Amino acid sequence: MDSSILQHLVIFTTLAIFTDSPVQAFLCASDEHLVQSWSGYPVMGNCVKCSGSSSVNVGEWGRCSVTCGHGSQSRTIIKVNPCGRQSRRNETRSCNTHTCPVNGGWGTWGQFTPCGKSCGGGIQIRFRSCDHPSPSNGGLSCIGDSLQTASCNSQQCPVLVTITNPTVSVTSTSSPSRKHIGTRLTSKRQNYKR
């Protein structure tokens, strides 16, 4: 008996006793298959190079885990050897490593400016800035107004009235809440001819 067949016979017999199953996967190389010399146990035969062709099937990359800020994606690679046996592995790579855009946010309103009028309806203004945070990396600017106006000192202004006659000049100052009348006597200057 050929020594290689005898060697396989010893190994096959041992494995068959403990596993009670075909053992060619444990004995032949990945590109070989077992050619049995008979179909019973112990298994006897030789490992022969497979005559098929090998192939590699590379899957599509999956979706990135994030849209920005450094994510990852994977794909599956399946290899088929000449014997038709498959092996697969996953491959991973980085994706969307660019910095995420930051949209702008409004800061707090500032103080109103002094009123433009002391009475009769004025306007005061206050401002805010798009800096909480400021837009960056292509982010959107703030939506809304950076300036706000408000009415102020809307009360009616006092009214000054002056009535003059040849002997008396009267000045009247009035307001919606109270009235104050001041009187100034003006002497009439007369020139007499002699």
UniProtKB/TrEMBL annotation:
Database matches in SMART domains? TSP1 (SM00209)
UniProt keywords (A-Z) are:
Disulfide bond, Repeat, Secreted, Signal
Give the domain of life: Eukaryota
Enumerate the subcellular locations listed in this protein's record, separating them with semicolons: Secreted
Q: Which SUPFAM superfamilies match?
A: TSP-1 type 1 repeat
Q: Which PROSITE patterns match?
A: TSP1
Give the signal peptide range: 1-25
Q: What is this protein called?
A: Hemicentin-1
